[in-house]
Amino acid sequence: MSTSNAAHAPVSARHAFALAFDLAFRRDPIQSLVVPLLLRAPWMISLALLLRDGDVELTPRLQMLAAIALLGQSVTWWAVDSMLRFRARTVFNTPAGQRPAPVVPCYSRGLRRLPWLYLTESVRNLALTFAFGFFILPGVFLAHRLAFSTEAVVLDEPHLASAFRKSFRLSRRRFERWLEMVAVSVALAFSVLFVTASLYLSRPTDAWWQWVLAGSLAAAAIWPVFQYAWTFFYLRLVETETRFPSIAERLRASAPARAAVARVPAAGGMLAETPAHEGQPAPGTAAGALPARQESGVPFS
After folding, report:
1. Which residues of the chain have pLDDT under 70?
2. In a domain, 146, yes or no
3. What residues contact residue 6 under an 8 Å CB cut-off, 6+ apart?
4. Tens digits of per-residue pLDDT, 232-270?
5. pLDDT at 203
6. What gap in Å lies between CA 74 and CA 79, rounded to an integer?
7. Domain that includes residue 86, residue range
8. pTM score over 0.85
């Protein structure tokens, strides 16, 4: 069986980021950029203030506060990312002026997917750490094939295993496009960090942690653009995916046809003994084939 062209239709990183910038900066900048940053910034600032003196041993109280800040930052980050994925799906393949879905239902649906998102992220990061520990090629391969597991487990799949299977299926023969998405994402992230580092070098200070915090906040501010872009990229892959039936499904589908073919010899013997009535074609003639030839557009000879 030849693979359909629809299974590998064009997928563009440039188009995904164009949709992301349109949604984040033009359609809905408040809920896409401002509110997510306001939700994430307090946890990031609190953690930076607690850990700014890294050479000083933290007291048990400060350790507990740092753990709470880290937990709050992680949960907030995952909840916002889930919300962004759902809002991106509501405007995918819609007219330019279409508004995304209300934010509260998107947050509600995202929070319900948090346990599976946390498990998927943890298992994927553990697998990547193990793969990169051996050599660079196994790590790159696994990073490519599991690239869309978090989008899948939030938007479509019920659990970890099915999300991994879907990511493996969608990423097949898409290495160049995945690498393009990674390159664009890294270039945008490094541009923000480069600006922050340049400002620090122009005005060096002993409070280096303030510049680290500033760079982190700047990265968090544009993070929704990355999340939107990867979600749109995933949705495009799902849109172009063609599902081919398995061998078992094809056998089940062809069972009635094989049974009908097996009944033809017996039915032909019975028809041969039946006399033809006057004005009717004899059984077994090609009269029944005429309508089929008419439907196919083949003219009579």
Report:
1. 1-10, 53-56, 206, 242-251, 253-301
2. yes
3. 240, 242
4. 999 999 998 855 554 555 567 666 666 665 665 555 554
5. 78
6. 9
7. 11-240
8. no
Q: Is residue 298 in a domain?
A: no
Count Cβ atoms within 10 A of the Cβ of residue 253 and give its class: 0-12 exposed, 13-18 middle, 19 or more buried.
Answer: exposed
Domain tally, the chain: 1
d(CA 96, CA 91): 9
* Residue 128 counted as domain residue: yes
Residue 176: inside a domain, yes or no? Answer: yes
DSSP state of 52: S
For 215-237, give one letter per residue: b (16+ CB within 10 A) or e. bbbbbbbebbbbbbbbbbbbbbb
| CA 50 vs CA 63, 159, 212: distances in Å | 9, 36, 14
Report pLDDT digits (tens) over 195-233. 888 888 887 776 778 888 898 999 999 999 999 999 999
